[in-house]
């Protein structure tokens, strides 16, 4: 059985995944933060932060729609990379004094939590893949 068949049997879609919901929440927080950044950062830090936050949810969604577990896993790894990229961007925003250190710590903690959840989802997909290879 392929990953999309498992998904369809449950009658769910990617928007029901807790990891996608968590990344969506982060995406919204990043968007709100970016609205507060100076205009001269519009095509620099703002663009990078928005792209990375959107990439995380988009990669989870695209992987979910793929035919095989391995493809889903690969897209989840890309989502994880985007989340790590966001941590760096939050660090830059803090260094530039656009974001208070305590706010950055909270946001970084949320991103790290999403990474841990995504790692768990990847482990789940790997387990399902192994079971079906037998």
In brief:
81% of the residues lie in helices and 0% in strands. With 134 residues, the protein is mainly α.
Overall morphology: elongated
Provide the number of structural domains.
Answer: 1
Major sheet size, sense and barrel closure: none
Output mean pLDDT.
93
* CATH topology term: de novo design (two linked rop proteins)
State the end-to-end distance.
11 Å
- CATH homologous superfamily? 23S rRNA-intervening sequence
As a percent range, the share of strand residues is under 5%
Question: What is the level 1 CATH name?
Answer: Mainly Alpha
State the helix count: 5
- Would you count the extended β strands for me? 0
H/E order of the elements? HHHHH
Descriptive notes:
The chain is mostly helical and 134 residues long. Helices cover 81% and strands 0% of the residues. The chain contains five helices and no strands. The model is unreliable at 5-9 (pLDDT under 50).
